[in-house]
Design brief:
The longest helix is centred in the C-terminal third of the chain and has 28 residues, at 132-159. The protein has a seven-stranded antiparallel beta sheet with strand order 1-7-6-5-4-3-2. Helix 2 packs across helix 4. The protein has four helices and seven strands; from the N terminus they run E-H-H-E-E-H-E-E-E-E-H. It is globular, with a radius of gyration of 16 Å. The protein has one domain (3-159): Alpha-D-Glucose-1,6-Bisphosphate, Chain A, domain 4. Strand 4 (75-84) and strand 5 form a beta hairpin. The protein is of the alpha+beta class.
Length: 160
């Protein structure tokens, strides 16, 4: 079983500014701070193919349902890898090291009349019998919350 998420983030800025923001480690760290992660490491490097973004973060597992807590413990390490092959397209993989499952998909930027939309399309898969579907739902909800946080930080970032 798997759960698909398609979420749009809009910015009142041209695509070039949004792409530059997403390529800025300071922006990525600010998003982590906004989400009150316990620890994070952001690395962004240019490659021959484009841009490699890696965000390794640890979040507290407070407030998650009991059925999920026994799988993740007190902290959740989340590793987000983005491979930007152009300013408009990235392949995304999000993993929780040592835990079954992943999230894979894409991010696409498009501009219309000076407004840029980032469309994130991910499939969440958790390979645990009986509770996998529940965990996919929980992870999907957390992912949408993280995308909303990124959008809020991004709008403020671009307004500066």
């Amino acid at each position: 079983m798997a759960k698909r998420i398609v979420h749009e983030l809009t910015y009142d800025a041209p695509l070039s500014e949004v792409a530059a923001m997403l390529a800025d480690p300071a922006f990525r760290r600010e998003v982590c701070d906004y989400q009150a992660v316990l620890r994070s490491e952001v690395t962004i490097e240019e490659t021959d193919a484009g841009l490699e973004v890696r965000i390794d973060q640890v979040q507290a597992a407070t407030g998650i349902p009991a059925f999920a807590a026994k799988f993740v413990g007190e902290e959740i390490q989340i590793v987000q890898s983005e491979t930007w092959t152009s300013r408009e397209h990235a392949d995304i993989e999000v993993t929780i090291p040592g835990k079954p499952g992943d999230m894979v998909g894409t991010a696409t930027l498009s501009e219309s009349d000076g407004t840029t939309t980032e469309t994130v399309d991910l499939t969440v898969k958790v390979g645990i019998p009986l509770v996998g579907g529940k965990l996919e739902g929980l992870i999907s909800d957390l992912l949408v919350k993280a995308l909303r946080a990124e959008n809020a930080v991004g709008r403020k970032w671009l307004a500066r």
